[in-house]
Design brief:
The protein is built from 4 helices and 4 strands, in the order E-H-E-H-E-E-H-H. The chain is α+β, with helices and mostly antiparallel strands. Strands 2-1-4-3 form a 4-stranded mixed sheet. About 20% of the residues are buried.
Length: about 90
């Protein structure tokens, strides 16, 4: 997974949490991407989407997604945070 470089921390994260996530992920060597990078991966046939400022490759989860793979395919290459929170609620991030 990667972090979106220019993305502001999501409003549902408590103060300091986004910074801490970013710091830990950088320590682990997680790359940063732009939204243009995410869109380019979609164009190249990848299945990447953004949730809460983090990039997820959902390729291996498409067939197993309880809501159907169409949900993930519709959101690939986009920021899917709002739809994710509608479907799963903020508690899914705890």
């Amino acid at each position: 997974n990667a972090l979106i470089r220019e993305k502001m921390p999501p409003a549902w994260l408590a103060d300091g949490v986004a910074d801490e996530i970013g710091r830990r992920r950088q320590e682990m060597g997680s790359p940063t991407m732009t939204m243009d990078d995410v869109v380019a991966r979609k164009i190249q046939g990848g299945h990447h989407l953004v949730i809460g400022g983090m990039v997820f490759d959902v390729s291996s989860f498409l067939k197993d997604h309880p809501g159907g793979q169409h949900v993930l395919l519709r959101n690939q290459g986009h920021d899917a945070t709002t739809g994710f929170l509608r479907a799963h609620g903020a508690s899914a991030h705890s």
